[in-house]
Design goal:
- By secondary structure, this protein is mostly helical.
- It has 2 domains: 2-86, DNA polymerase, domain 1; 113-291, Orthogonal Bundle (hpI Integrase, Chain A).
- The protein has helices at 5-15, 20-38, 50-62, 67-86, 113-121, 128-143, 147-151, 181-193, 195-199, 218-231, 242-253, 258-265, 270-273, 275-291, and strands at 158-159, 164-168, 174-178.
- It has a 3-stranded antiparallel beta sheet with strand order 1-2-3.
- Helix 6 packs antiparallel against helix 8.
- It is globular.
- The termini are far apart.
- 30% of the residues are buried.
Length: 295
């Protein structure tokens, strides 16, 4: 079946318009799946049955893969087998009776207002890296962008007069996110005082640049987050999406409605956004316990 993976990837790339990172993940998942069933003596799609797929799921679980990642693997496998049937490369889809593992939702790690302000303040300074990094942190917290989306921002992505940032998310879907004054001021300061020095007489329309004047990578952005979290003496587990989670949680805590947060985050399904209602409920419980006279 391995010979059909390239055809399948071309199909979902064109028909589904999935993001590049999702395509790469699906390819890895399918290669792993086919390698697993090959070791069981399976060579053709006709030989695969429900038990083989389920055993693969259990093997992933045995290796401590998260429920979210297991579900993504199963989604790739289901799409692959449906594609094989559609293209008459197989007669039956063995995944039709395979249940999706129930996702247990973990409350994402978020920062308090004091922690995020300390983190942004930790980047204060006059050298070009500090000016750039403070602008990066301000944009992250102000917009809830994904790391990859921030890396892809262009100099034309921000409207300073109206106050919004234009982001291109998963599936090349574009969305407009309001941007506060502090973030706009930080980016304008970066554009005037730091970016020209990073650009080094090169031509590049990417907003945030590395020391070499190239587009800043996702890995570098992740390093920026970790570095200033340490400088701010934050002990919590920090992940690439921590500022995105913080953005959404703080909006809900201050009264934003779920649909608006969904739109700003770029979630196609509101159920994805609903995880933040769990965070909000935890916040409400703390407030209730602190202030209710009979708590």
């Amino acid at each position: 079946m391995k010979e059909f993976i390239d055809e399948f990837m071309n199909y979902i790339s064109v028909e589904r318009g999935l993001a590049k990172n999702t395509l790469l993940a699906y390819r890895r998942d399918l290669n792993k799946y086919i390698e697993f069933i090959s070791h069981k003596g399976i060579e053709t799609a006709a030989q695969v049955n429900r038990e083989h797929v389920s055993n693969f799921m259990f093997d992933l679980k045995k290796h401590d893969m998260s429920a979210t990642s297991i579900c993504r693997n199963l989604a790739a496998i289901k799409m692959f087998h449906r594609f094989l049937v559609r293209e008459n490369l197989a007669k039956e889809d063995p995944t039709t009776l395979v249940d999706t593992p129930q996702l247990w939702q973990r409350i994402p790690s978020v920062l308090t207002l004091k922690e995020i302000e300390s983190m942004i303040a930790a980047a204060s300074g006059k050298n070009i890296q500090q000016v750039r990094d403070q602008a990066i942190l301000e944009i992250f917290y102000a917009s809830g962008l994904r790391v990859s989306e921030l890396s892809d921002l262009k100099t034309t992505s921000i409207n300073y007069d109206v106050g919004f940032v234009r982001a291109v998310g998963k599936g090349s879907k574009e969305r407009i996110i309001p941007l506060g004054m502090k973030a706009r001021e930080a980016v304008q300061k970066y554009l005037i005082k730091a970016r020209p020095k990073l650009l080094k007489n090169q031509t590049n329309d990417v907003l945030f640049l590395s020391r070499l004047g190239k587009k800043i990578s996702r890995q570098s952005l992740w390093s920026v987050i970790k570095f200033y979290a340490r400088r701010a003496n934050i002990k919590k587990t920090i992940k690439p999406h921590t500022l995105r989670h913080t953005f959404a949680t703080h909006l809900l805590e201050h009264g934003a409605d779920l649909r608006s947060v969904q739109e700003m985050l770029g979630h196609s399904d509101i159920s994805t956004t609903q995880i933040y209602t769990h965070v909000d409920k935890e916040h409400l419980k703390k407030v209730h316990k602190q202030f209710h006279p009979r708590s």
